[in-house]
Design brief:
The chain is an alpha+beta fold. It has 12 helices and 22 strands. Strands 1, 2, 8, 9, 10, 11, 20 and 21 form an 8-stranded mixed β-sheet that branches. Strands 5, 6, 13, 14, 15, 16, 17 and 18 form an 8-stranded mixed β-sheet that branches. The termini are far apart. 46% of the residues are buried. The structure holds flavin-adenine dinucleotide. The site of flavin-adenine dinucleotide has 38 residues, from helix 1, strand 2, strand 3, strand 9 and helix 8.
């Protein structure tokens, strides 16, 4: 795995969640890593994010040694309740399921970047933008450019694209993504002192609109609304008023009156869902660069951590290069697809803005009544299990049993009438 002077085993483009995770985990396995980031400031952070990290990513957070650092900064050990008109509120109590982390990106990103940069073997190249891939066909490095527009090449056996949703490396390679349009738009802001006080996150599936509140460190709560696209003209005519009215009209709405607004209103109008092949010879994609999913489910940060972890697990021992490395990349691509494609298909279908269908309505009703179904639903929602979990015969039997009970209840009442 040793590299020639100036060469690296791995060149990672993007020093955000996915890139820093990959850099640290590769270096802990003995690799020499170039971590290339266009932002010059070490404490730069992503602003368009609501940073609920699912419990599926907790093992990676622990493996990184990040958990105690987040705890020391007051990260919330998260849990979630969901409201639909079919179910009312559903959720597991604190302690009934593993927790994830809720912590603002303003706090998280600098901590994770410093952790990665301080790992022996990682060379952080901040203020450097990747502008090209080196090599014909199979990449053998990255061309980078500094703020004075001076270019140089960084050579490596493996190039990792961790450059986010509009991945430049995917365009350069080119590795096009499968795109599904999004039927909602997003506005959110930060509040302090939102009452009633809770550390539990809440999501409202209003059919077709959505909303959520995610409590974070320092009594901050990020409150987001995601109306259907049809409502964009109405929203735009009075942005702040529409945002406040929608939040205040939610069932069991948080009280805005006594809370202070701690940020401007942030918006994101276009968020297509994108899935691409996560590797080809010499090149891997992690995080949003591999798959950009619907934010309504609070999933992208967790998957950025996890996909970087899967990549390192599959390829770290094969960084000698050549066919062994490409076989390892192919394994990573298959793990990524197996773990994430079913979730992607489910979330991007819902992201179209279509109404909740009768089957989902029945599922939500049953989840509200049945603890076993509620646990299965939580495992899928927290992304620890595949959506296939809901097709497990033991789960299906309970859904059908409930349906039969409901039918016979109706028949009994009809007979009695
Ligand atoms: C409105 C909204 C709300 C969200 N809420 C949540 C949530 O609650 N929970 C959740 O899990 N996810 C959420 N997400 C998704 C989450 O923000 C992303 O999934 C996550 O940031 C992906 O991390 P990443 O490291 O892959 O990419 P990014 O965080 O986008 O980082 C990419 C990095 O690459 C750098 N870069 C890009 N191009 C280059 C280049 N050419 N050269 C050098 N550097 C480059 C960038 O500067 C950046 O640092 C939300 C997204 C949106 C839009």
């Amino acid at each position: 795995m040793s590299a020639h002077a100036g060469d690296f085993d791995v060149a990672i483009v993007g020093a955000s969640i996915a890139g820093c995770t990959a850099a640290r985990l590769f270096a802990l396995r003995g690799a020499r890593v170039a971590l290339i980031e266009r932002q010059p400031a070490l404490d730069a952070y992503k602003t368009v994010c609501t940073h609920f990290i699912q419990s599926s990513a907790t093992p990676t957070i622990e493996k990184l040694g990040l958990a105690p650092l987040l705890d020391a900064r007051g990260a919330v050990h998260n849990s979630i309740d969901m409201w639909t008109r079919y179910s009312g509120w559903v959720g597991l109590s604190d302690g009934e399921a593993p927790y994830g982390y809720s912590i603002t990106r303003r706090t998280l990103d600098p901590i994770l970047r410093k952790l990665a940069a301080d790992t022996p073997g990682v060379e952080l190249m901040a203020g450097q933008t990747a502008v090209g891939l080196v090599g014909n066909g199979r990449p053998v490095g990255v061309r980078i450019e500094d703020r004075a527009r001076t270019q140089r090449e960084v050579s490596s056996r493996l190039v990792v694209a961790a450059d986010g949703r509009d991945s430049k490396l995917a365009r350069l390679a080119p590795v096009p993504g499968r795109v599904k349009p999004h039927g909602r738009f997003f506005y959110f802001a930060y509040w302090r002192g939102l009452r009633p006080f809770t550390t539990r996150s809440r999501v409202w599936l209003l059919d077709p609109d959505c909303a959520y509140t995610f409590p974070m460190e320092d009594d901050l709560t990020v409150a987001l609304v995601a109306p259907h696209r049809d409502r964009l003209p109405e929203f735009r005519s009075d942005l702040h008023g529409s945002y406040r009215r929608m939040l205040s009209s939610l069932p069991d709405a948080p009280r805005l009156g006594t809370a202070s607004l701690e940020s401007k209103l942030l918006g994101k109008l276009e968020l297509p869902n994108v899935f691409r092949r996560a590797a080809r010879p010499g090149l891997a994609f992690v995080g949003d660069a591999a798959m950009s999913a619907d934010p309504v489910w609070g999933v992208g940060c967790g998957w950025a951590l996890q996909s970087a972890d899967w990549l390192v697990e599959e390829t770290a021992d094969a960084l000698g290069g050549g066919s062994e490395l490409d076989a390892a990349l192919e394994r990573y691509q298959r793990v990524h697809r197996r773990r994430l494609l079913p979730h992607y298909l489910m979330t991007s279908d819902f992201a179209s803005g279509r109404p909740i269908n009768p089957l989902e309505g029945r599922l939500f009703r049953a989840v509200a009544r049945d603890t076993v179904l509620r646990r299965a639903f939580e495992q899928v929602g927290s992304r620890r299990r595949s959506p296939a979990r809901l097709l497990d015969p033991r789960v299906l039997v309970r859904l059908t049993a409930r349906k039969t009970d409901a039918l016979s209840d109706r028949r009994r009442s009809a007979a009695a009438a």
